[in-house]
């Protein structure tokens, strides 16, 4: 019989019993009285009659967690890389000794054990069903640890160095945390879905819903997490074959789309969507084995706006090619070194026309990155650099960028940059090619 249970039994049988009265020399002295035992003397008597050894608790309550195919409570905050199962080995001795050696069990103060702290973590608004799982895990580990630290035979087992706990690199664990995943979603998709809102946001799409049904409302108003969940549930994001995600295939017309062509492979929207979806898929399938594989966030942040720009007199030969405009702002020392706005879309050759709304751009973590959240472009003089993908290189490699070799012209433009489709800033396509 464990010394802990013995001392608890003694305690629970007395009315005036405190932790101080327990033998202070044993590691178990500070262990709080387990509620199950301390509540009534009747319950204590039954338990005491047949106290469970740590081994029995391990077999009955810990091993089932180890063998379970169900996700542990950890996955509520960790998309991948962390599972409670990682902290369990098939044998009790090895599990205990290696958890102690890894600093995850505190043999002197079992309730302070790091593994218990991990299990206790609860996200706000955690659904009842997850809380139940968490409570069960917590009760199982706590009971087992309290029983185990009271057994000298277990305390004397030396760790055999078997790996225990998550084996993914710490950078990978951090990257796959759901708060980080959400931040990346906001950065890459949420900031971009304004392009789709007219038909996919419930405050604006009554007509589409009437015609096509509720599933067309895949944007959840003001709630990026709920929008991500919905995209996953509705299979708009395909975590097994990311490039087959409907979120990519519909707007690029790779599959029929009620909204027509809204993007092309390789344009900015497509790149941002892919950036998130590819990364999500990798994490959902086990994550990154080394820190070096983790994709870096783009070094720019962007916001789409309702500021429209129109190019007239675009040569018809460019029909259906992707045209990208980058705007540089006039400063006291010449044009800004960084582009401040960009926009890309296919050219409509028959009407010699290109038009699209602008995305404001700033280097990540810069002061400008905060300013552009206002969705305003300061009035004044700008340089528009115009690129056309004449070789179709973005079609071949969506991750390619247009560069100096694709530049077809530069033109100065002065505007107040009003927002609204009806208030477009119009510039003439520069007639002579770049000097
Ligand atoms: C409420 C959300 C939440 C839950 C649930 C959660 N974690 Fe975490 N976890 C975090 C956060 C946030 C961090 C990073 C910063 C920190 O440690 O506080 C983290 C970091 C970690 C780390 C990184 C290393 C370290 O020492 O900080 C490990 C390992 C870890 N958690 C394991 C677990 C395990 C195992 C579970 C389930 C038993 C779990 N977590 C459940 C939020 C959570
Ligand atoms: C002019 C309106 C319009 C715009 C703008 C629009 N769509 Fe759509 N979209 C539709 C309609 C209508 C449907 C329903 C018919 C269909 O499935 O093609 C639809 C369906 C979809 C679906 C399938 C939804 C489901 O669950 O079946 C996806 C994914 C989608 N659109 C993505 C996009 C993306 C991404 C954008 C923005 C880049 C966008 N759409 C912009 C009209 C639009």
From TrEMBL:
<keyword id="KW-0349">Heme</keyword>
<feature type="signal peptide">
    <location>
        <begin position="1"/>
        <end position="21"/>
    </location>
</feature>
<keyword id="KW-0408">Iron</keyword>
<dbReference type="GO" id="GO:0020037">
    <property type="term" value="F:heme binding"/>
</dbReference>
<dbReference type="GO" id="GO:0009055">
    <property type="term" value="F:electron transfer activity"/>
</dbReference>
<dbReference type="InterPro" id="IPR009056">
    <property type="entry name" value="Cyt_c-like_dom"/>
</dbReference>
<keyword id="KW-0479">Metal-binding</keyword>
<dbReference type="GO" id="GO:0046872">
    <property type="term" value="F:metal ion binding"/>
</dbReference>
<keyword id="KW-0732">Signal</keyword>
<protein>
    <recommendedName>
        <fullName>Cytochrome c domain-containing protein</fullName>
    </recommendedName>
</protein>
<feature type="domain" description="Cytochrome c">
    <location>
        <begin position="49"/>
        <end position="149"/>
    </location>
</feature>
């Amino acid at each position: 019989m464990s010394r802990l249970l013995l001392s608890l039994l003694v305690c629970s049988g007395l009315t005036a019993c405190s932790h101080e009265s327990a033998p202070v020399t044993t590691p178990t002295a500070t262990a709080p009285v387990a509620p199950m035992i301390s509540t009534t003397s009747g319950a204590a008597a039954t338990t005491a009659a047949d106290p469970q050894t740590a081994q029995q608790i391990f077999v009955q309550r810990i091993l089932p967690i180890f063998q379970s195919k169900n996700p542990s409570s950890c996955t509520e905050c960790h998309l991948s890389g962390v599972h409670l199962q990682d902290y369990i080995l098939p044998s009790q001795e090895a599990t205990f000794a290696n958890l102690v050696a890894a600093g995850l069990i505190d043999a002197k103060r079992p309730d302070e054990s790091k593994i218990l702290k991990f299990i206790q973590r609860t996200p706000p608004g955690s659904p009842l069903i997850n809380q139940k799982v968490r409570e069960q895990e917590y009760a199982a580990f706590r009971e087992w640890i309290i029983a185990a630290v009271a057994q000298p035979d277990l305390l004397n087992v030396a760790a055999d160095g078997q790996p225990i706990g998550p084996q993914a690199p710490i950078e990978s664990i951090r990257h796959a945390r759901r708060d980080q995943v959400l931040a990346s979603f906001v950065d890459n998709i949420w900031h971009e879905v304004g392009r789709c809102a007219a038909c996919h946001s419930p405050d604006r799409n009554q007509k589409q819903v009437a015609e096509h049904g509720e599933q067309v409302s895949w944007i959840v108003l003001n709630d990026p997490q709920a929008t991500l969940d919905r995209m996953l549930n509705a299979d708009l994001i395909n975590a097994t074959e990311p490039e087959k995600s409907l979120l990519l295939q519909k707007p690029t017309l790779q599959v029929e789309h009620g909204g027509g062509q809204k993007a092309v492979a390789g344009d900015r929207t497509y790149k941002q969507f892919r950036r998130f979806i590819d990364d999500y898929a990798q994490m959902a399938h086990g994550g990154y084995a080394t820190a070096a594989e983790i994709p870096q966030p783009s070094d720019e942040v962007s916001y789409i706006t309702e500021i429209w720009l129109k190019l007239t007199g675009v040569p018809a030969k460019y029909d259906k090619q992707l045209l990208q405009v980058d705007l540089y702002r006039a400063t006291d020392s010449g044009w800004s070194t960084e582009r401040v706005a960009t926009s890309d879309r296919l050219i409509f050759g028959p009407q010699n026309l290109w038009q699209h709304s602008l995305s404001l751009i700033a280097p990540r973590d810069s002061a400008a990155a905060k300013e552009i959240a206002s969705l305003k472009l300061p009035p004044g003089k700008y340089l528009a650099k115009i690129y056309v993908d004449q070789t179709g290189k973005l079609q071949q490699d969506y991750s390619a960028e247009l560069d100096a070799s694709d530049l077809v012209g530069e033109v100065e433009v002065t505007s107040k940059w009003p927002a609204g489709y009806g208030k477009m800033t119009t510039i003439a396509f520069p007639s002579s090619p770049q000097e």
